[in-house]
Design goal:
heterodimer; A: Rossmann fold; 25% helix; B: Mth169, Chain: A; 7-stranded mixed β-sheet; 30 helices; 40 strands; 25% strand; globular
């Protein structure tokens, strides 16, 4: 079976690219780091890939707004190839800074470039924070979480601008359309607004969303930081089972293979 | 024409910057009648029209969902508005991103950009005087920032380079030479005279560039004059400090050492053809006057040391150790010209956070220590560790004809005199005179430079690489070309703005620059790689075979020095040292009256209390490599002794990093305090599972200006290091000294900052699944104390400091037993016998037990013997001792044969720490109470 090709998109300040690449490799993907300059120059073509990942980091220093400078670059120079990639039904994942970029391009939640419907603001605490949190996996069309709905997973967040916000109508659309994929929750899986389990004050405890088709997904936490057992701080206490982040990547690879 | 765009959050949305400031106004300044603060971002765009500015605001600067903007109009109204900006010439990292994005939006003509922030204050207390105090104490660091009083006419910096000056040293008297040296060159009279004599021999006077180059190369910071000096200690001749350390390492002849004290960092063997390297630096002087920028550039500098190791390494761990005065110090107790410790602590943490997080390097090891005498100058210690292919560990020597290439950031007037400045004494004038020695770092520039360098290195294009740190091009190229010679064309250096004189370009310490030697055949492919990563690369010169350093600017020679004189002309010093122990008796601790209260006081002592709020602000998990993270346990807040990373994905090989330091003990006795630091560093590593045979060490001496007394103390500290190496076989492979921890007030009174020896330990671990965390894993298991100590050696302990008891009976470590204990603990780890392990340090057994209970969400019952003095048992701080959790103590008989160990008690389900003697309960204290006391101090400092 041919391994699906995964484009790990990087640019100045991308810094979770290596671990994201490893997660997809471990899941069975064939990965390549692609600098946005290589797409702009035509040296690389998005259409040669089956999956695109926008990793975490501080693209262009998160200047002005987190992910904004890269979002403007993508919508200015790669509008057609990006829209074509999404329209052809290929999975896209944005993690942390990548999620911020997807939201600021408009690919999330409406899969339409330039149509910005929601936002990620400064954490309610006003601070960058790195901590392990629990996520309740919601029932959604998201292809990255197939077979996971109802579960509570443990993953790390590390961000300063992760407070998800959308206005009433848009929020309603997301909720009724099943586009909420992950919620910050207590250990028992109950979604929570209380700090620090909800580390940033996200509305409706939203940690990750997808588009209507479930092919484009973004989340603030880092599933790529938990694809091996010893990556969890408490693996010595046992009881963890399989690494909680790995299925996200396996699902995407499986989806492409099944296509 | 400048267009001004102001962006503000809509009223329904919080303004986290304003809220954080309000918190500080209330809690740091104690001003209660300011009821609100709102802020706006201000962007100034030069060279475009108003409608274009509107388009940029809408598409880039403001997020319509929660913000609004104005063009050339105020946006904050109804109160006193103030704008704070970087001073002209201080690099604002945001500007370059905006320029790029505006171009991406298809708008041309933009000439310059700047961004700043406006503040508005509401409430009855928001008068001019109060706001002035807020500006001074919280908002503006005048070293780099200013209040914008009027709209600038232009953002474009202009200037003409000054001519190269000739300094007539040949005719100068000794007084005149010293006047030239004062505040600028920081050289002593012998050094100034040897410069004078050299130029008399040459029959000409030097240029400003030549004098400055010599001063940089001969500075204490670069030349380590004290460490290389011949010593007379109490009348006896002793060999130089550095030589002793290096000889000890050579004698240890450790099989894993690849390079020691040679490269930008120390390198040791890892596994499967990989090597790991470590470097620890201090950045005290810049951090003292501009803590945010100072900490950033400190981090950036030590990362570049790793990047510039061998033919290029990847940075995988960042470590930060700080010493400050207590954050709750009365402002009146802070000496003039010095910043308040709370401000320093918070800003230093922010600087480390913003650099490491953006670079994507996990900051996962560190500590903070407090002592009143750091009020004049903090110790800011930054470490970094990297991984590189073993075959790329040795730098090549540049060949004549090789290109001298600079990549990364542009050169500005930043950090001029940084090396000489950090070698000088800090005075009440320091802030005014040396302002140009500090700058703001740009982590993204360094990140992309690292990305490009690693790719070029992996393709075998790099002959040699080094970072551009203290002394700038002068130091980097002077050193790289020392064996051959180098010719430099200064006018080729990319500048941030025009107007730099040649000597300024040559010595500028602008950050994020790396210097390389390349085979000319590799240039085109190398420059292409750089271009792909948006990294500027320029050929700055060529290596020659004339053994001289020749620097030209537009054809004019501005510096022509013989490499031999530059690197070997520095007169070797002979220094006198003596150290007499301070007059003090034995610390004799009395009994504790209220155990519960005292235990809480120990847990909330700043040296013991939880540093969780700091650790959480660092992205300690990036790279997904932690196998033993800094925090763990049931509530995620229990501190581990060391960090273990698994840098090669999919493989279980680990690198461990830990450290130890104790300025209090060093003050009591430099020898035993230093042994403690080394023992603590290694204990931390061993507790987590390190094999003591696979550990290398790094030393950092942060010492007062070496008068004979301080030098005597330094001599003892070095002896301690040497003895430690001999006892354990662990070699020092990198080190640094910073001998300027002295503050001189206007009335000539001196404050000597406590001497700090920070020992860092790093090593390799074959299998990260054989490592141990500190949290108790279950109830009903056994708690065992392992290691040798004389419990009555209490001087310098947190207990004695809290009780105000002084003395000289500090812990004296038995090196021989300690080495056996390390091996035994490791054997127990390897056999999988240890459920948890924690070493004993500040706060003693009491703090270790409490932290282990917090992590496991359990309590414990400790039984003491009739012969134990409870205070000593619980609060003695002898390093090299461990608390372990085991299922069955009988399993330990074999591995612990021949070393001291005893069963202390058991873990319980009770939620209490109970200490009993036989059937008599001495005390029982709730772990919740202890935890609250332990967490409170830093939560208050950081407003969590």
């Amino acid at each position: 079976m041919l391994k699906p090709k995964v484009c790990i998109l990087r640019t100045d300040g991308t810094n979770c690219d290596a671990e994201t690449l490893h997660a997809f490799e471990k899941a069975g993907g064939q990965c390549r780091m692609v600098h946005v300059n290589q797409l702009r120059s035509g040296e690389e073509r998005l259409s040669d890939y089956q999956i695109m990942a926008l990793p975490g980091g501080f693209s262009y220093g998160d200047d002005v707004h987190s992910g904004k400078i890269l979002a403007v670059e993508l919508t200015s120079y790669l509008k057609e190839s990006l829209q074509e990639f999404v329209d052809s039904g290929k999975p896209v994942i944005g993690i942390c800074n990548g999620f911020q970029v997807l939201v600021r391009t408009g690919l999330l939640p409406g899969r339409k470039l330039g149509d910005i419907r929601c936002t990620l603001m400064h954490n309610h605490s006003g601070r960058f924070e790195c901590r392990w949190v629990n996520l309740k996996v919601e029932d959604s069309p998201c292809i990255f979480t197939r077979g996971m709905s109802g579960k509570t997973i443990s993953v790390q967040v590390a961000h300063g601008e992760g407070k998800f916000y959308a206005d009433g109508d848009q929020l309603n659309t997301l909720e009724t359309g099943g586009q909420v994929v992950f919620r910050y929750s207590a250990r028992d899986g109950a979604p929570t607004m209380s700090y620090p389990q909800n580390p940033n004050g996200s509305i409706n405890s939203i940690a990750g969303i997808c588009d209507k088709t479930g092919l484009v997904m973004g989340l603030m936490p880092h599933p790529e930081r938990f694809v091996a057992v010893h990556q969890h701080p408490d693996w010595r206490r046992g009881e963890m089972g399989e690494p909680h982040g790995l299925p996200v990547f396996i699902n995407a690879v499986k989806y492409c293979i099944e296509m | 024409m400048i267009q001004e765009v102001r962006v503000v959050n809509l009223p329904d949305f919080p303004d986290t910057v304003g809220e954080a400031l309000l918190y500080d106004i209330r809690n740091t300044l104690g001003v209660q009648d300011i009821t609100g603060v709102r802020t706006a971002k201000v962007y100034r765009l030069e060279g475009i029209g108003e409608s274009e500015a509107g388009y940029i605001a809408q598409r880039l600067l403001a997020e319509e969902i929660f913000q609004r903007y104005s063009i050339n109009r105020p946006v904050l109204e109804g109160g006193l508005v103030l704008e704070v900006a970087y001073k002209p010439g201080v690099m604002n990292p945001e500007a370059a991103s905006i320029v790029k994005s505006v171009a991406d939006l298809g708008i041309g003509g933009l000439l310059a950009v700047d961004s700043s922030r406006e503040y508005i204050f509401y409430g009855p207390g928001a008068d001019k005087d109060t706001v002035e105090v807020i500006l001074k104490k919280l908002l503006v660091n005048e070293t780099v920032e200013m209040v914008v009083k009027k709209r600038p006419q232009s953002l474009i910096l202009e200037g003409k380079p000054g001519p190269t000056a000739i300094i007539p040293v040949r005719n100068m008297t000794e007084d005149q030479l010293m006047e030239l040296s004062h505040d600028k060159l920081f050289l002593n009279i012998e050094e100034m005279l040897s410069i004078k004599n050299h130029f008399i021999e040459l029959g000409r006077d030097p240029t400003d560039c030549e004098v400055e180059t010599l001063a940089q190369t001969w500075s204490e910071h670069c030349g380590h004059k004290t460490f290389k000096a011949d010593l007379i200690v109490n009348g006896q001749k002793k060999s130089p400090l550095l030589k002793r350390l290096q000889e000890a390492t050579r004698e240890a002849s450790h099989p894993l050492v690849i390079s020691a004290f040679e490269d930008n960092s120390g390198v040791m063997e890892f596994f499967d053809g990989w090597a790991i390297c470590g470097k620890v630096e201090t950045h005290n002087s810049p951090s003292a006057i501009e803590p945010y920028g100072g900490a950033m550039t400190g981090s950036g500098g030590v990362f570049r040391d790793i990047m510039g190791t061998g033919r290029g390494a990847r940075v995988i761990v960042s470590a930060d150790m700080f010493c400050f005065a207590p954050p709750w110090m009365e402002p009146g107790d802070v000496p003039p010209g010095c910043l308040h410790p709370k401000y320093l602590l918070r800003r230093v943490v922010s600087g480390v956070r913003d650099y490491g997080n953006r670079m994507g390097i996990p900051t996962n090891n560190g500590s903070v220590h407090f002592h009143d005498d750091f009020r004049a100058k903090p110790s800011v210690i930054v470490g970094a560790y990297g991984i590189l292919p073993a075959e790329g560990c040795q730098k090549g020597t540049p060949l004549p004809g090789d290109l001298a290439v600079v990549i990364g950031g542009r050169t500005g007037r930043d950090g001029i005199h940084g090396a000489t400045f950090s070698s000088g004494e800090m005075t009440h004038r320091t802030v005014d005179v040396n302002a140009s020695a500090v700058q703001i770092g740009n982590a993204i520039e360094e990140k992309r430079t690292s990305d490009a360098l690693l790719e070029a290195s992996s393709q075998g294009l790099v002959r040699a690489v080094t970072d551009c740190g203290a002394g700038g091009f002068g130091s980097a190229l002077g050193e790289m070309g020392s064996e051959t010679g180098v010719l430099v064309w200064l006018e080729k250096a990319p500048l941030k703005y025009p107007g730099l004189s040649p000597w300024e370009i040559w010595l500028s310490e602008s950050q994020e620059r790396m210097v390389l030697a390349l085979d000319p055949r590799h240039w085109s492919i190398f420059s292409e790689i750089c271009q792909n990563y948006n990294v500027e690369s320029v050929v700055l010169g060529t290596f020659t075979d004339d053994h001289s350093l020749r620097v030209t600017y537009d054809g004019e020679t501005v510096c022509h020095l013989d490499m031999d004189f530059l690197h070997h002309g520095l007169p070797r010093r002979e220094l006198e040292a003596c150290w007499a122990p301070p007059e003090s008796g034995k610390a004799d601790p009395g009994p504790v009256e209220d155990w519960s209260d005292f235990y809480c006081r120990v847990m909330s002592h700043p040296d013991v209390c939880s540093k969780e709020p700091i650790i959480r602000m660092y992205d300690h998990g990036v790279q997904g490599s932690n196998a033993l993270p800094p925090l763990g346990g049931m509530d995620g807040g229990a501190p581990n002794d060391a960090v273990v990373v698994a840098p090669l994905y999919g493989r279980n090989y680990g690198m461990i990093v830990s450290h130890g330091l104790n300025p209090v003990l060093n003050n009591i006795n430099p020898y035993h305090g230093s042994l403690w630091a080394a023992a603590e560093a290694v204990s931390n590593a061993v507790a987590a599972g390190a094999d003591p045979g696979d550990i290398c060490l790094i030393d950092n001496f942060i010492w007062p200006y070496p008068d004979s007394e301080s030098l005597g103390a330094l001599d003892m500290a070095v002896d301690a290091c040497v003895d430690f190496v001999r006892a354990t076989g662990m070699p020092f492979i990198s080190g640094k000294d910073s001998l300027s921890s002295t503050y001189r007030n206007s009335d000539d009174t001196l404050i000597k900052i406590p001497p700090v020896l920070c020992i860092s330990a790093f090593g390799r671990i074959k299998d990260v699944s054989r490592t141990v965390s500190t949290d108790f894993k279950k109830s009903d298991s056994y708690i065992v104390l392992v290691g040798k100590r004389v419990a009555s050696e209490m001087a310098g302990s947190v207990y004695c400091r809290l009780a105000g008891i002084q003395g000289d009976n500090l812990p004296r470590i038995d090196l021989e037993t300690m080495a056996l204990v390390f091996k035994a603990i490791h054997a127990a780890v390897r056999q999988g016998l240890l459920l948890a392990c924690h070493d004993i340090s500040e706060g003693g057994l009491s703090a270790a037990l409490a932290e282990m209970c917090f992590g496991g969400d359990v309590g414990c019952g400790i039984n003491i013997e009739n012969t134990d003095t409870p205070v000593e048992l619980l609060f003695n701080e002898t390093a090299g001792n461990f608390v372990i959790e085991v299922g069955n103590p009988a399993d330990l008989q074999d591995v612990f044969n021949g070393i001291p160990w005893r069963v202390l008690g058991k873990t319980t389900r009770s939620g209490k720490i109970t200490v009993s003697r036989g059937s008599e309960v001495l005390f029982a204290v709730d772990t919740d109470l202890l935890r609250e006391a332990w967490q409170r101090p830093m939560k208050e400092v950081f407003g969590c």
